[in-house]
Amino acid sequence: MKKATKRDVEAIRTLLLERYGEAVSELHYTNLYELIIAVALSAQCTDKRVNLITPALFKAYPNVQTLACADLESIKSLIQSCSFFNNKAKNLLAMAKRVVEVYGGEIPLDEEALITLPGVGQKTAHVVLIEYTGANVMAVDTHVFRVAHRLGLSQDESALKTEATLTKVFKTDLHRLHQGMVLFGRYICTAKNPKCESECFLQSYCKSKESFKAR
Ligand code: SF4
Questions:
Q1: Which atom of ligand 1 is nearest to the CA of 206?
Q2: Phi, psi at residue 198, to the nearest 5°?
Q3: More exposed terminus of the chain, fewer Cβ within 10 Å: N or C?
Q4: Which domain holds residue 161?
């Protein structure tokens, strides 16, 4: 598949920022505690479902201290409609305990510390930093991965390598480009039946649209 040229990259950046420059995450949260939980739950699960689950969870456990003392079965029952809820419940409990025991109840806001929290990998840490601090970092979920490949921005096989490539290719505005690529992938460049003809504003830069035509 063809690679995006430097000119393509700059045009894609401009168009994504024009359309999504002010976009924010569709996850509902009011503070860092709620954000990190919502992001952790959103792995392999839709934001829509996470937003249905979190109100009751945040009501039962409104902060990291209460979550650290929670009963595991109770967390499981509150998040059971989420994919991988058993593991996610265990990780949420362990994450809260570690924040209380090691970080004095304050969720740390640097990547090295964040990735020591159970269930928080590099992608989750980056999404939290993007959302909460506007950090110039990239995070690659299923939407960003697909969009990056269709637009010829990356030919990497893993999400982490794609993240490194996108960081190198775009260099700046990474947090806003991340949000833009998520929304573009979620609503326009969808996995099945992407809206190439009707809605795509990046069609001239697409390297794979032909494979979605005339079926
Ligand atoms: S033309 Fe289609 S496949 Fe290509 S970027 Fe646009 S929506 Fe995605």
A1: 4
A2: -85, -30
A3: C
A4: 6-23+137-210
